[in-house]
Amino acid sequence: MTTTTRRRVGIAGALVGAASAGVAAAALAKRYAVGRIRLRPDTEASEPFGELRGRERTLVTSDGVALHIEIDGPEERRSSGGESESNDANDPRSGRDHEHDAELTIVLCHGYCLNLESWHYQRKDLRENYRVVLWDQRSHGRSQRAGADDSTIDRLGQDLAEVIEEFVPGPCVLVGHSMGGMTIMALADRHPQLFGEKIRAVALISTSAGKLAELTLGLPAMLSKVVHKVAPSTVSILGKGGALVDKTRHAGSDIAFLITRFIGFGDSKNISPTVVDFAESMIRATPTEVVADFYPALMNHDKLSALDVLDSVPTAIVVGDRDWLTPPDHSRAMAAALPKAQLTEVPDTSHLIQLERPGDVNDALRDLIKRVEQ
């Protein structure tokens, strides 16, 4: 082991050790805090998170990764009763849904460490009147794991192109949250010809065109620089010990609850504990190795030049004003590059805006769809 490697391992060990000491010292406070939160009235306690179903499909990408797809909407529920007909990629029904003549399809692309269930409220709203295609991005949710070399934003953009080719027979609107928005930008970079006739509009939610490595995460400047300096090697080291780290993550669900609530949601006084649990369960279900594989891709993401492609279609940009992970400045930069885009900043809201303020996101999507339909 080289001196540099020993130093990195030492830093990672120090961080993990400090975290463990902090957990032990704050155990009682943590239990008290979580207990108080869970005792509050919970308006979303009966919400059927993870229970919405459409037709399940499987797409094997050009590089051999099986992606989980769900197709929802009035016609799908009438013809299938919400039950899956086939998961077999060789079954002709699992390819292009030629029996449907929907005028417009809404394609929902989820974020980093989440899955298609993160669109619960948007799916619930849109499925009543529109054909909706949801998919788990590679290595997330029920899609197949990909190797580290194939865990890139450009590859996600190609995956989206193939999803559209197979499951979107007519025009569509693309909606992306966080990494899902980056996926759309990568698609624009690689397949600009799709925007206009095929892709009629785009919604970019809590996302960024680049420079994520410069985020302060709400920390003082000097501390932020230190975090960014050690984070890549620390994430890589933790990823190599993913199985052990995952066991620790599952054991520390109360801690994860508090972290998710603090970072993912802005208005901490009113957010439903059930919603926080739902978000945390998706994050916890994402293997640490996957987190580590995609981390460099997120930090190196730079698609500002690809935004010119989106200027040809109606574009909505939505962000919470307390988003630390993809701050409002990043959305404003995208809006500056897209003069025709409509920018919505939602007050007292953070990164998981589609779960925290579903009404605001749904209103923005419906307004965007109306612009397309008109």
How would you describe this protein?
InterPro entries: AB_hydrolase_1, AB_hydrolase_fold, Carboxylesterase_BioH, Epox_hydrolase-like. This is Alpha/beta hydrolase. Keywords: Hydrolase. Pfam families: Abhydrolase_1. One of its GO terms (molecular function) is hydrolase activity. With 374 residues, this protein is α/β, with parallel strands linked by helices. The protein has a domain of 231 residues: Rossmann fold (3-Layer(aba) Sandwich). It is 48% helix and 13% strand. It contains 15 helices and eight strands. The chain has an eight-stranded mixed beta sheet, with helices on both faces. Strand 1 and strand 2 form a beta hairpin. Helix 1 crosses helix 2 and helix 2 crosses helix 9. The longest helix is centred in the first third of the chain and has 23 residues. About 14% of the residues have low confidence.
